[in-house]
Automatic annotation (TrEMBL):
GO terms for cellular component: endoplasmic reticulum membrane. InterPro entries: ELO_CS, ELO_fam. PROSITE patterns: ELO. It comes from Cephus cinctus (Wheat stem sawfly). Pfam families: ELO (PF01151). This is Elongation of very long chain fatty acids protein.
Length: 296
C-alpha cells in the first residue's frame, strides 16, 4: 500500500496535536539512534555493574525506606505510560480497523504524516533507559532481585533500540501493549508505595495481562514470519528481528508463567519462596521489588 492509498482513509483521531509532536522529524531520530546504537550496550553494562555492585555494597548496611521517592517515581512512570498509550493507540486502532492484521504487522506508518505516534514510539524506546532505575529501589531497599527482573530490563532495552533503527512495522503492537500494561501496573505500584492496599485480584489481572502480552507477541512474530515466507507480500520486518523477538517473548512467557505458578498457585514453593512472597510480595506484578517486575 502506497502513501496515497494510506491517505484515502481519514487518519487517526487525535483530539489535539502538540507543537513538539508536530515538529517531530523521524528521519533525524532514526539516524541518531542508528549512529549511537552501541550506547544501549554501555547502558546495560553500567546497569549490571551498579546493581550487582550495589547489592554487595548494601549487604552489610541497613536498607533504605525511600517510600516517598518510590511513590513519586511510580506516579511519574504511570503518567508517562498513560500518555504514551493514549497517543499511540489511535494509530494502532486506525490501522487495524481500516487495513487489517497484515498491514498492522508488516507496513509501518507513514510517520511523516503521523508524527504523534512516531514521537511517542521514540519516547517509548528512550524510556527503557531511565526504567533501568527501577532496580535501584530493589538494591537500596534490599529486596529480592530475581533473574527475570534484570534479564527483562536488559533485553527490552537492546531489542527496542534495535527495532527502532529498523523501523520494524510490528513494533506498533509491542509499543501499544507495553504502554497499556505499564499504565495499569505503575499506577498499582504507586498506590502500594503510598501505603494503599488494592485488592490482590488486581495484581492477578496485571500478571494475566503480562502473560497475554507474551502470547500475543509470539503470535505477531509467527504471523510476520509467515508473511515473509509467502514472498508475495511486502513486510517490513527482518528475519533476525523475528528470531530475536520470538526468543525474547517466549522466554518471558516461560519465566512469567513459572513465577505466576509459584506466586498464586503455590507450586513447588520453598522456604525461601515463602519468605519472598510474604509481606505483600506474593504477586508477580507488585511488591516483588515493590513494583519492579514488569513485562515488555
Amino acid at each position: 500500500m502506497n502513501k496515497m492509498d494510506y491517505m484515502k482513509v481519514t487518519g487517526p483521531n487525535y483530539s489535539y496535536v502538540f507543537n513538539f509532536e508536530e515538529e517531530f522529524i523521524h528521519q533525524d531520530t532514526r539516524a541518531w539512534m542508528t549512529k549511537h546504537w552501541t550506547n544501549c550496550f554501555y547502558f546495560c553494562g553500567i546497569y549490571m555493574i551498579l546493581i550487582f555492585g550495589g547489592q554487595h555494597y548494601m549487604a552489610s548496611r541497613p536498607k533504605f525506606d525511600l517510600r516517598g521517592v518510590l511513590s513519586l517515581w511510580n506516579t511519574l512512570l504511570a503518567t508517562f505510560s498513560i500518555i504514551g498509550f493514549t497517543r499511540t493507540a489511535p494509530e494502532f486502532i486506525h490501522v487495524l480497523r481500516n487495513y487489517g492484521l497484515y498491514h498492522s504487522v508488516c507496513i509501518p506508518s507513514f510517520i511523516e504524516d503521523d508524527r504523534v505516534s512516531g514521537f511517542w514510539t521514540w519516547m517509548f524506546v528512550l524510556s527503557k533507559v531511565p526504567e533501568l532505575g527501577d532496580t535501584v529501589f530493589i538494591v537500596l531497599r534490599k529486596q529480592p532481585l530475581i533473574f527475570l527482573h534484570w534479564y527483562h530490563h536488559v533485553t527490552v532495552l537492546l531489542y527496542a533500540w534495535f527495532s527502532y533503527t529498523e523501523y520494524t512495522a510490528s513494533a506498533r503492537w509491542f509499543v501499544v501493549m507495553n504502554y497499556c500494561v505499564h499504565s495499569i501496573m505503575y499506577s498499582y505500584y504507586a498506590l502500594k508505595a503510598m501505603r494503599y492496599s488494592p485488592p490482590k485480584w488486581i495484581s492477578m489481572v496485571i500478571t494475566g495481562l503480562q502473560l497475554t502480552q507474551m502470547v500475543i507477541g509470539c503470535a505477531i512474530n509467527v504471523w510476520a514470519y509467515q508473511y515473509l515466507e509467502l514472498n508475495q507480500v511486502e513486510c517490513h520486518i527482518s528475519r533476525i528481528n523475528i528470531r530475536l523477538s520470538l526468543m525474547m517473548y517466549f522466554s518471558y512467557f516461560v519465566l512469567f508463567a513459572r513465577f505466576f505458578h509459584k506466586a498464586y498457585l503455590g507450586g513447588g514453593r520453598s522456604r525461601s519462596d515463602k519468605k519472598m512472597y510474604s509481606n505483600g510480595n506474593s504477586h508477580i506484578a507488585a511488591d516483588y521489588s515493590n513494583g519492579k517486575l514488569k513485562a515488555n
